[in-house]
Write the structure tokens for this entry.
Amino acid sequence: MKNPKSLLIALALALLATSAQCRYVKQREVTLLELTEPRQVIVARQNIREGERLDETMFEVQAIPAKYVQPKAIGEVDVVLGQIASGPISEGEQLMANKLLRSNEAGLAWKVSKGSRAIAMTVDEVTAVGGHIRPRNFVDVLGTFDFGEGDKVEMRTITLFQNVWVLAVGSDLGQPAVVGAEAQSGGNMKMNGFTISLALNPEDAQKLVLAQSIGDLTLTLRGRFEDKKEVTLQPASVNSTLGIKKQVRYRRNRSFGVYGPGGF
């Protein structure tokens, strides 16, 4: 052998090249396996229109090779349920996080059911059950009005609406709202008053606007286990409340002013 040193170098280089090639092939196999490994993805079962709220009938779980999974594709059913489509989604399309909105992110308009209107009324701790009303509660709306003529004051309290769905309290569309905390966080609640948004049909919304302009409105909170049946109630007058028919001097407790004496 004329040059054993050159032969050894050649053999070493060959071994290095072979080792590098083996490593490349192994790495390539791993990469290909990762790309072809099936991943769970949520796919639209039907065409979904913008603004529709997703339920379990609108999508299904499919196993798709990883290389075909879209960026931001969702794989968990719980993440999709109840969310709102921010744009049209086609049948067979993977559901992606950037095409879905949570109710709180979507805004109040997405929470108003078809045929209803959102309308706000100004309340305070007294007229809103001490600030304990929350979104998704049901309330009754009561109004106190003066039916007197001239100098005669005749106050009556009437239940205007029953089983009214609360859409929002201040700017809170679903999170627990505490008057003090909301005021500190810069929400719509204030120290002496805040707004509550209700869902009413268009006709009742008109009535609420008028009622707010001519009387004092108060909300009562319906219990969690209360049924949705409406109760027939007679208007409460001063005479029926006190059980006497004598003249009563009326004094407004709130800071809007004081009525003078009058008969009933």
Observations:
- Residues 4-36 form the longest helix (33 residues).
- The CA atoms of residues 29 and 110 lie 48 Å apart.
